[in-house]
From TrEMBL:
Residues 263-352 form the Fibronectin type-III domain. This is Fibronectin type-III domain-containing protein. The keyword Zinc does not apply. Residues 1-18 form the signal peptide. InterPro entries: FN3_dom, FN3_sf, Ig-like_fold. SUPFAM superfamilies: Fibronectin type III (SSF49265).
Amino acid sequence: MLSLQVVVFLLSVSEVISQCPPSSGIYLRHNGNCYTNGSYFWDETVNAANEAISCVLPGTNLTTGQCVRVADPDDPVDCNSNSASDPFRCTNVTSPDATINLYLAQGIPAAQEGWYKCCLPTNCSDPNTNIIFANIFRFAEIESFTVTDLPSDMTIHPQEYKLNCTKIGHYGYDISMSIGSTALASYTNCNDDSNTNPCSGTVLVSSTNTVRYTVNITWDGMTVSSGSISQSITGDQVYQCVVEVTDQPTRTRNVTIKVPATAPSSLTEVNKTATTITVSWIALDSSDADGYVVNVTSDTDTVQTVQVEGSSNNTITLNGLRELTTYSITVRAYQQLLGPASTISVQTLPGI
């Protein structure tokens, strides 16, 4: 049985570990803090031996550990020569914790920024080694772009959630979040070093200019809106965050929210009594729906809303209704959010 311990989560935020150092497992350490797999490090903060990124495996002796650029695994960092052609310098600690300390001689060239993996206590060709990833970048990067507060209760409509884009690195930049060609938020000439910064981000870590920008989104099943900005959309919602520093490569990150593209078809009355109505529809494929939400209204009042789990469940009996009353019945499929609606009107029978 192989004991390979690899956790590849390359789009994660640089999360500081509360227990530092942890009692077990490979981890990263920088400026006295411990970091998880997939963390980001600005090259300006690792430009000296006392600013090194340390890759540590507690309780293990170092044998042939190494750091390798993911895009060029055949050119590992050479800790023995520290040659002028290699921007990295490193030192090793053999025991009691296998450690490689990695730092830069004078910043990192554009061609060599990006993801690096550290392998301990043996080199990366050993299938039993332990691996952790770090992103070392120039100027600015998007540390994470995530969706938060997605609704768990699908019966609430309209739906609300947040987009969070976290930028790290250079103090001067532009940042925007959009869906399609519609900008939901756009900030220019941001300056994290200025007390009059025109941009409304939340500072997470001042030493690395780590700033989170948030957009509040409302979704009604047809239109995405944020404040006075709105955009009609069908199907999955693909959002984009862009960070730009003058004369530097543009950083872009996308995030997708799964949304049914079509309404349940052939919504039909199956049966009714004075107090019940049974309706059915053609179920969507499991790849297009996780379930359905059925909403019942009379005039303008919502009588009941029911969440039906499972894409194959396509029939429901609605109870507790009034006789000789016309109800509007709406069915929507859902995944992470609600999709478009099918609606029919049905009148209950007279009571006996």
